Amino acid sequence: xxxxxxxTGLVMNEPxxxxxxxxxxxxxxxxxxxxxxxxxxxxxxxxxxxFPDLSEVDVVRHYTRLSQWNYGVDTGMYPLGSCTMKYNPxxxxxxxxxxxxxxxxPMLPASMAQGILALMHELETCLxxxxxxxxxxxxxxxxxxxxxxxxMVVRAYHNDRGKPRHKILIPDxxxxxxxxxxxxxxxxxxxxxxxxxxVLAQETIAAVMDEDTAGIMITNPNTLGLFExxxxxxxxxxxxxxxxxxxxxxxxxxxxxxxxxGAIGVDVMHLNLHKTFSTPHGGGGPGxxxxxxxxxLAPFLPVPRVVREGDAYALSYDFPKSIGKVHAFYGNVGVLxxxxxxxxxxxxxxxxxxxxxxxxxNYVKERLKDTFHLPYDRPCMHECVFTDKNQEAHKxxxxxxxxxxxxxxxxxxxxxxxxxxxxxxxxxxxxxxxKETLDSFIAACRAIATEAAQSPDTLREAPTKPKVRRLDETxxxxxxxxxx
Amino acid sequence: MRYLPHTGEEIDEMLRVxxxxxxxDLFSTIPKDCRRTRDLVLPGPLTEWELNDRxxxxxxxxxxxxxxxxxxGAGSYPHHIPEAVRQLLLRSEFYTAYTPYQPEISQGxxxxxxxxxxxxxxxxxxxxxxxSMYDGATSLAEALLMAIRVTRRKKVAVSRLIHPHYRRxxxxxxxxxxHEILYLPALADGTTDLSATGDLSELAAVAVQSPNFYxxxxxxxxxxxxxxxxxxxxxxxxxxxxxxxxxxxxxGEFGADIVCGEGQSLGLPQSFGGPxxxxxxxxxxxxxxxxxxxxxxTVDKDGKRGFVLTLATREQHIRRERATSNxxxxxxxxALASAMYMACLGRTGIRELARLNHDKAEYLKAGLKxxxxxxxxxxxxxxxxxxxxxxxxxxxxxxxxxxxxxAGLPLETYFPELRDHALFCATETVSKExxxxxxxxxxx
Lengths: 484, 444
Prior knowledge:
The complex is a heterodimer.
Chain A lengths: L55 H12 L23 H6 L2 H4 L11 H18 L3 E3 L5 H18 L6 E5 L5 H8 L3 E5 L9 H7 L4 E7 L11 H10 L3 E6 L18 E4 L19 E3 L11 E5 L2 E5 L16 H14 L3 H19 L15 E3 L11 H10 L6 E2 L9 E3 L7 H20 L1 H5 L12 H6 L6
Parallel strand pairs in A: 2-3, 2-4, 4-5, 5-6
Antiparallel strand pairs in A: 1-7, 6-7, 8-9, 10-12, 11-12
Helix pairs in contact in A: 4-9, 5-6, 10-12
Chain B lengths: L7 H11 L29 H13 L8 E2 L12 H7 L2 H4 L11 H18 L3 E2 L6 H16 L3 E5 L4 H13 L3 E5 L18 E7 L10 H8 L6 E6 L18 E5 L15 E5 L12 E5 L5 E5 L6 H4 L12 H39 L13 E5 L4 H10 L2 E2 L2 E2 L10 E5 L6 H12 L1
Helix pairs in contact in B: 3-10, 5-10, 6-7, 10-12
């Protein structure tokens, strides 16, 4: 292979914030005082928090050094399965920082906030077109928050019909958030197994679907990267018993312009704007998890909703069947702006995004299937799942290979998920990686497989190039040390 | 398209490797009757330059500060944000990273969040803080659900002076899971009537906001005593303006079991209400019942200090339906922003800035009073307060909007009994000149 991109640079050590600084320093330009001091009862005031006093230079060096210990999409390929770590366009940072948006108080009269309301309304329209589900709320702040909102809508729908239901079907390939979100709404998750082909069989659903079951929560494409090909038949079984079909849209990056979820029997779905619609993940958020639903479910969406009155936009609370509010205001508006910009920049080329995401995943799958064990050897969607079975003989695990990839300059794939695949290695390249990047990733994986056979200790000791080596997670959990 | 690197030749070559005849053929496993039959109808595609024009036009349709003088707080506060914070957040190693699942190449995020957790505990006087929740409202809802889990009781007492939007979110969360809410009314001085809690042995928690929605500082010592009259009941304090704790005694010192609220004030732009930052802190004894991610200190193979996500057995990806919460992505970058902001201020700076906020609001309060407004609630306030204006304030408020002044938030929508009352906020971003102009308008 060509020169390995992973290397060690000049990485600085940096202490904790409060190990720096001197009392009396400041890193903030204090606004000029133009009013007199007003009396304040001394019994109300404390000592002030024990923060370190730092200069602006101290703060800037601190965080610059910390940033250099991190790996981001801008550093290199980040093939984290089910996370869709695509490139985050730079222009979006400019757009979301425009003064009209960042300086807007959320309780401004609607007449003063027409620009952002128009944007939100248009974004809803675009997401409705992409999903085929006509009514949208932008309020949920993350994917799991969208799931919770969607399940509350499902619950409200059944209650409104005077027939509360208590169970929800969840496939064994689901993200952990699915059962957790439904449990928060008081539903009991009923696990259902996928078939030997890695997808749900309609017979399995028919056997468990009953009139106390609110519906089914499916991820499509599923976490094995496979399209749930029986979805229409499954939706019919669920609908015939009065249930609803929820689709977790975490994997929508394979489906834009390819499948209209509304047309195949889906009633509710959430989207992850920080996955499919390129908004940055921020090292753990903020994300956004809009929920799209059928007309029948629209009355239950959270309030307020953006409504159009003639040429003007307003926020309306006049939806008596609404589940209520799930966010103090209207969701992560700054994130919504970036997703809107992404859609405007791509337009109908969003279909090409999905095509190339699927092409990249299949290319990696084909070129690595002689290296790693591929449990489901079929055309995949946006991601593919391998295992460490071929390396078992050398006593090398998925974890060892993932850690070694770091030394080669790549972020590891998602590992040990989905749970139904033992030792899973879940690779989602996304469409923004070029063929040459994929080729060097593939070469790194092959080199690691060779090392697994020839020098397995190299893998067990990996990674060696980052600032720290493998960390003792057991110690961290047994003796929690959560604040300094 | 500049984000899509594939050339036609590369696509052909890759299709050959995959064994597909064209891009459509990649989707052959999707049954025909599931395939979309018509193309997407979407605006665009726009060039980068057309996008700038479009977004500039939308931004220009907003009437916001500095052109407009707003005296609005109520859960979203205008504060100066140092350019250093804004630029450091654009270090793309931070903002283009995922949740730090691979600690060896995420030490930047992990140390920064560990530092954030620490600064939050110091600000609020608590022992442990998580890596963030979505916003103030959801962090309160999660705090109440946590109290319900810890105590195995089904009912909570919630002050009516908690932000009405937070109460609405709490209702949405708690009623969906079949729990009961008892509202505590307001006293004449603008603080919560704690005598209304009823039988405490039924209550999982007593929750108050301080400073509350009227801007009034609650008597946290009394609230804590009331809640803890039953040894099991949890005392929860929420807030919308954390800057207040640069000056005020932190809730932890009054025995709060959970302190949670909105962190937007600490270095985040208002951005029409989001992204915000749900701050969440508690006591060590409850750590295993807490929702959300936690970063902990540990060592690497060579004994060197490092940080990892820890106590994950509480979380959804391990415990699934029995998790302490369904939260996964939180507001990581916002937590980072607030840590940077708190680091810029330091102990000296946050105290001075908080004091300035208090004094600005007191100046406005005195000015409005002199202009004929009444200050109906006697309890002390931080940087916002309620004023009762002469009858006909509604029309005046509307007239002032035309003059680019937002004269506070009229309260009648939220509290029907508070006709002609408005909530006014003055932070360090408001000048004496702007306040004098408002006072003059109110007097006229």
